[in-house]
Design brief:
5 helices; binds fe (ii) ion; alpha+beta; Ferritin; single chain
Length: 213
């Protein structure tokens, strides 16, 4: 059901009611621009609505995926530590900490939306790295997988008509752009300067250590 309303300062809007959720959309009319902005979303009691069940489940799964990412990066950190590359070790430890923070941010969000959730078992990292390049290539591959999961949550939030989640997910989308970018850069730098070992590798490892601080 839709109600159209207007007011005196060249603004107009409409209420849309669906599945017990009342949404107010505002249309702002500028000389050359007409844009629609979302203003309020509330249920009939005036509260933020309950989250779509499938959307909630996807976010709950993503908490697990973020913690799994942390596990993978700790495993890579340990691999480099075992090779005497302390800069790369520090870099991947830092990545692992960031992944835990991503998981915590999702947990806090579900909590704030009054949604319950459970932590699930984390898959063990199962990669065996044959050389120093493989973990760097795997990091990029893994971040691309995570990006696809994040985009799937965003798409589901849009489909469910939950602008609070779409807004929240935009932080993760930006974060993934950064994470894929950094992973690609690290791999490129390795190929350019470090793949032949020696001083190039030593400098590369030192730079990774500095970047981890
Ligand atoms: Fe993450
Ligand atoms: Fe990540």
């Amino acid at each position: 059901m839709v109600w159209v309303v207007g007011n005196r300062d060249a603004r107009a809007g409409f209420f849309h009611s669906k599945d017990d959720v009342l949404t107010y959309y505002e249309i702002e009319i500028e000389p050359k621009i007409v844009f629609l902005s979302f203003i309020i979303m509330a249920n009939k009691k005036g509260h933020i609505p309950f989250m779509d069940k499938q959307l909630r489940d996807l976010i709950e799964d993503q908490i697990n995926k973020e913690l799994w990412s942390a596990y993978i990066y700790l495993d890579i950190a340990e691999f480099y530590q075992s090779k005497g590359l302390h800069g790369l070790h520090a870099w991947f430890e830092k990545q692992a900490k960031e992944e835990v923070e991503h998981a915590e941010k999702f947990m806090e969000f579900l909590h704030d939306r009054d949604e319950s959730f459970r932590l699930k078992p984390i898959d063990a990292p199962n990669k065996v790295y044959k050389d120093l390049r493989e973990p760097l290539a795997y990091q990029l591959e893994h971040e691309k997988l995570v990006t696809s999961l994040i985009l799937a949550i965003y798409a589901k939030a849009k489909e469910a008509g939950d602008p609070i989640v779409t807004h929240f997910m935009s932080w993760y989308i930006n974060e993934q752009v950064e994470e894929e970018g950094h992973s690609k850069e690290l791999l490129d730098q390795y190929d350019l300067f470090a793949k032949d070992g020696g001083l190039g590798l030593h400098e590369f490892d030192k730079d990774c250590g500095k970047a981890a601080k």
